[in-house]
Each structure stands twice: as C-alpha cells, then as structure tokens.
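Q: I have two molecules that I believe assemble together. Could you output structure tokens for the complex as a whole instead of separate predictions?
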Amino acid sequence: MADPQGLPPHELTMDELRERIRVAGITIAEHRLAMVRKLLGDALAPVRALDSRTIRTVEPAVRFAPDSEGGGGE
Amino acid sequence: MSDEIAYATIRELGARYRKREISPVEVTRALLARIEKLDPVLHAFVTLTADRALDDARAAEAALRRGDGNPLLGIPVAHKDIYMTRGIRTTGGSALFAEWIPDEESTAVRRWQEAGTVLLGKLITHEFAFGIQFPGHRFLAARNPWNLDHIPGGSSSGSGAALAAGLVTGATGSDTGGSIRGPAAFCGIVGLKPTYGRVSRAGVMTLSWTLDHTGPMARTVEDCAYLLQAMAGHDAADPASSTLPVDDYLAPLRRGVGGVRIGVPRNYFFEGVDAEIQHSFEEAMETLRKLGAEVRDVRIPSLHAAHSFLLILMAEAFAYHERDLRERPELYGDVARERLLAGALVTASEYTQAQRIRSEICRETAEVLRDVDVLATPTTLKPATPFAVAYDPELGFPRSNMAPFNLTGLPTLALPCGFSASGLPLSLQLSGRPFEEGTVLRVGHAYEKATAWHTRRPPV
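A: Yes, here they are, computed for all two components at once.
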C-alpha cells in the first residue's frame, strides 16, 4: 500500500457535505455542519489520499485465528 | 474502612476472606459507604444496587464457609452500563434507554456472577459508548479522580473513575476504538482489550460489530488476569466468539520476561506524542530491558492510514442506530446524535476501502509479530483531556494509538507507566498475537512488579 505523502489533499467541502446529507435523507443542524465536516473529512483523508489500485488485492475481510499464517489478519 | 481495603487486590481480598480477617459483607458495606461519600462528586455510578450487593456478599460468605476456592468469590465489581443486567436498568448512558430494565443478562455479567462476584451497580458510559455527556444531558459525565477538571476517558468512563477511586475492585469495559484502554490510561489503572472473539459481546449494546470488544478493567495486571479468566470462552450467542480453549492467564505471570522480544513500532504511534509520555515510555522500555526482555524498533508502514477505522465505526454505528436516529433523534444527546448521523454519509465504496486498508494493516502487523512477541507503544498521545477541551464540539475524533488494535483485533493491555508533572497518569500499551493474552499479561505483570506507579492513589 503506497504511502500517500506527496499526493494532493482532497478535502471534504461544505458543498459536498450538504450533498451527501441530501442523498442520505438525514437532517443535521446547521450549527453542527462544521463539526461533522471535520469528523468525516478526517476519517476520509486516508482513503482519499490512497491510490486504491496500490492496495493488495485482498478481500475486505478480517479473520482472527491463531493458526493463520502470522495470525491477526487475513 | 481504610484505603488498604478499598484498594486491595483480588488476591489480597481472597486471602483475608479465607483467613476470616474480614468478610465480603463487611467489604461490601464499606464500599457502599465509600461510594455514597465520593460518588456525588465523581458520578461514576448511574445505578447503585446496594441490596443486590449485600445478597451477593452473603451468598459469597456462605460459599467461602463451604470451602469454595473460586478466586472471585466476594470480589466487588460493577458493570459498564451497556452490559445488560436482568432486572437492573441498563441505560447505555442515553435518554433513549433511561429507564429500560432488561429481562436478559449479558454473558460476561452472568459469568462473573457465577464466579461469585458482588454486584455493586452500573457504571456510567459515554452515550452508547460513543458520545460524551455534554452539559444538560440526561446523565452526568464521570469525572477523573486524579483531577476533577479532567475527563476520565471514555467510553468506559465510570469504570475508570470507580477503579481509580477505590469504589470497586473490578469492572467491565468495552473497547471499539480504545474505550477500555483510554480510561485505564487517563485514570492510572489497568485495562485489557482481549482478542476479538475471546470474550462474548452477547447482551452488550453494539457500537460497531467488527470493532467492538469486551474485557476487564482493574487496578493490577494480575486482577485483570483473574477477571479475564472468569469471562473468557466460547459463547454461541456471539457470532464472533472463538471456539478456541481458554488459556490459564495466571500461570504465565510467574515466568518473567527473560527472552521476550518486544517490538516498538516507531512510525505512527509517536507522531504528536507529549514529551512526558515519550520519556516515560522510553524509561519503561529500559526497565523491561533490565528485566531481560529484548527491545527493538519495528515498522508497520500501512498504519499511516489507520484513521480510516473511523469510517468503519461510523458506518456500522449508523446501521445499528438508524431507526432511532430517524424516528427519535431528540432522545440522543447533543453532538452524539450528529456523530452517529455522520455514519450515514459514508459511501459503500469508502467503507469497503477502509476494510481493505484494515486487511493490509492486519497483514503487516502479523508479519511484524513473526519476529517479536509483543508490541509496545504509548497508550495515548496526551494525558487526560480537560473537560473544557473535551466539550468543544469541534474537537473531532483525534488520531488514536489504540484504534490500530481494534482494527487488528489483537489482545492489548494498558497499564500505568508514570505521571505527568501536573499529576496525571501516563500509560504503556502492550499488544500481542491473537489469543496470546497470557504473553501480554506476563510482560505487563513483570513491568508492574518492577515499578510502583500502580500503587499511587488519587487525591479523592
């Protein structure tokens, strides 16, 4: 998985946030929009900074078994 | 009652019970009086079960007279208020369940009960284990016994505060992004997030299915081992529950750390860490070296993307709460409601990418754990946050040293390793291979025996 350093940041804009809220069919108070933008924007940052083609072609599944090779993961 | 009893370990209490120097009923009465005196300031308890506690204590006394050797007989405990307790209200720290009395019991609660513990009551949790109680909330937020102006951590806030103040000997916690280890760190106690699947989550309110863990909190590593022993094991009621046999968690504690290989992931976990925490951590590594452990630096490159764990948490939490959020949003606390609603804004693709990143972090961590037995990091980047800062809704969800181990599901222990100049506890985090709780406890116990941080008492 490539380190994202050097890739241009792709911030969550307030317009995009409002569009997501509209599509989701929920209501978020106007005075909480900045908070939600920060919360979601911070969480999205690693995904947006990533070239998804560089992630190993693993399934998005996790299993936990001590006898798996190395354990703790795929 | 003296502090000596309030802060006694499970082993000490058991020995005194069996020598008939003190009885479970006497200890229970004394702790109820201590709770009555201190809890109006600390707000650790949301429900006190005094009558039930005395009944449990009498039953424990009878069992002790019969020669029952269970180490948890007569040990005073309380449960985080997302653990369902039959006939005792279970609020989830939320107005939504403010008066809900379940007719079912969570598996972990039942197992501790069967081991002979004394149930003192239910401990406040951040709302649904996610959102701190802002002023005006239906329930008061717990305060940190080391400094009442600081949070005790969350979401197992009441568990951390009650243990630090000597109100209980053991408590349950849950950990989705650090909710056992954070309060342990901020309150100067010990918390263990077991391997995903080791302790049943049945009957515990969900925050995020693939990240939620349940586990014990206590004041010493050995106490955590005793408590884990009684709650671990397969439970068909939890789909993620492992069928692997339960190890003996006490036996490894006697073995010391000679030859144990400890890896320190130098990337990610030290970015933005307070100088005092870094210093106490390096001293802890030096202590472990002197005890015979081999300490070396390691790297887990994909951790740079670990904060995407929040996409998984938010999306799963919204799925769990969606109906109530749409139909009764006014019953959610301020800010907690918006944080949960934000999960509706995560797209399916983003959730999937976050799970792919998770797989990569799991793979790289497993590779590192081929060469070392345990990973060591600071538990938190800073000591306990002041309420004045925590109440800023713009704070967001800070980058976490604990979340990577929710992603990987690895057994992870937090224990005291120092104090800040302002008198707040600092914490060491130890993580091991899946289902190797014994190794993590062994290293933690050796460190604890060589230091005295866990013996300090808060000024309550």
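A: One point stands out. The first strand of chain B starts at residue 45 and ends at 48.
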